[in-house]
UniProtKB/TrEMBL annotation:
Residues 4-294 form the NAD(P)-binding domain. It is an enzyme of class 4 (lyase). The keyword Lyase applies. This is dTDP-glucose 4,6-dehydratase. It holds the Pfam family GDP_Man_Dehyd.
Length: 334
């Protein structure tokens, strides 16, 4: 199978490329990535001689058309992905997440190429802490941030192109990923690299917000299961029953560094901050037989801490600018 992977120099996309090369030897991979601040060629260094890398924009319709005409399937990861950035400046989110997805859909429609759309549980809005229900494939869309609104828009385009034009698409909406190669702007790598630098972790609000953590390799195994065996037109929710509040996660990171579990600071909360995400992944498990292999979040987190300790050359160049951006966005201790 010839695969076009968009956003393959980003966190989940790079891990997907690594997994594809390791577990699917009959697959050839072309990566299309515009190398925004979030993209990093170095994330693909160990597979550089096994893939084709194209430096370009998913909204460049001529380029996308040419690349799509030469593959059997597209797996679409490329996005502006960070909520805080979407509040500071929403425009790149509209351009990449909506217009970029449109560009890909038109090309797969023209060339009748199989398409898998990678999306987020944030399209469903948030849950109360004591809500007994979790998100399912039939939960109504109710996005809160510019990021999640543009992802929701892109999902709707995919559904419309499937129904109106017969595009052979599947969709997946996954919960919060952790693991190697995640940008230091995101919660877990930010706190790990702060601690390596001797800086106290920073918790938004009261640290009570809950995220449903899944290891990036489990997410990507689910994407492969859907690509190979998913029903056309179907959405699958991906989650590993990993609900934890942010304070508990910070305490576990502090523990991994041998620090007191109260060694963190509360900082300005995110405007419109979603309280809780929680995924019911029964459909994926029952229909496609997927189960997460990283059952123990503590062990996965410890391995992730070790990865950031061992790979400072990968994250160090991005660290100062990331922290300066948080200050520029008005973050301060409360
Ligand atoms: P990321 O920000 O780490 O990587 C995004 C990649 O897309 C980068 O390499 C960037 O250079 C590239 N990119 C951005 N704009 C582009 C454009 N216009 N053209 C080409 N390439 C472009 O993101 P991530 O965390 O790896 O997320 C990947 C996908 O998974 C996104 O669609 C995101 O919505 C979705 N998702 C992420 C999570 C998570 O926890 N990180 C959870 C569920 C779903
Ligand atoms: O749910 C899936 C989504 O998970 C993906 O669609 C997004 O692309 C991905 O970025 C992630 O979104 P979140 O906003 O949940 O992730 P983030 O890492 O930004 O924050 C996780 C939680 O931690 C959230 O409640 C905000 C909080 N937080 C974040 C940072 C950066 C802090 O308390 N302190 C921090 O310094």
């Amino acid at each position: 199978m010839r695969l076009l992977v968009t956003g393959g120099a980003g966190f989940i996309g790079a891990n997907f490329v690594h997994q594809s090369i390791a577990d699917h030897p009959n697959v050839t991979v072309t990566v299309l990535d515009s190398l925004t601040y979030a993209g990093n060629r170095a994330s693909l260094d160990t597979v550089a001689d096994k893939i084709d890398f194209v430096h370009g924009d998913i909204a460049d319709m001529d380029l996308v058309d040419e690349l799509v005409s030469g593959v059997d399937a597209v797996v679409h990861f490329a996005a502006e992905s960070h909520n805080d950035n979407s509040i500071a400046d929403p425009w790149p989110f509209v351009q990449t997440n909506i217009v970029g997805t449109f560009s890909l859909l038109q090309a797969v429609r023209r060339h009748d190429v199989r398409y898998h759309h990678v999306s987020t549980d944030e399209v469903y809005g948030d849950l109360e802490l004591d809500d007994p229900d979790r998100f399912t494939e039939s939960t109504p869309y109710n996005p809160s941030s510019p990021y999640s609104a543009t992802k929701a828009s892109s999902d709707m385009l995919v559904r419309a192109w499937t129904r109106s034009f017969g595009v052979r698409a599947t969709l997946s909406n996954c919960s919060n990923n952790y693991g190697p190669y995640q940008h230091v702007e995101k919660f877990i790598p930010r706190q790990i690299t702060n601690l390596i630098d001797g800086v106290r972790p920073k918790l938004y609000g009261e640290g009570r917000n809950v995220r449903d953590w899944i290891h990036v390799d489990d997410h990507n195994r689910a994407v492969w299961a859907i690509l190979e065996r998913g029903r056309i037109g179907q959405t699958y929710l991906i989650g590993a029953d990993g609900e934890l509040d942010n304070r508990t996660v910070v305490e576990q990171i502090l523990e991994a560094f041998g620090r007191d579990k109260s060694d963190f600071d509360f900082v300005t909360d995110r405007p419109g901050h979603d309280m809780r995400y929680a995924i019911d992944s029964s459909l994926l498990r029952n229909e496609l037989g997927w189960t997460p292999q990283f059952g123990d979040f503590g062990a996965g987190l410890a391995a992730t801490v070790q990865w950031y300790r061992d790979n400072e050359q990968w994250w160090r160049p991005k660290k100062d600018a990331t922290e300066q951006a948080y200050v520029a966005q008005g973050e301060s201790a409360v």
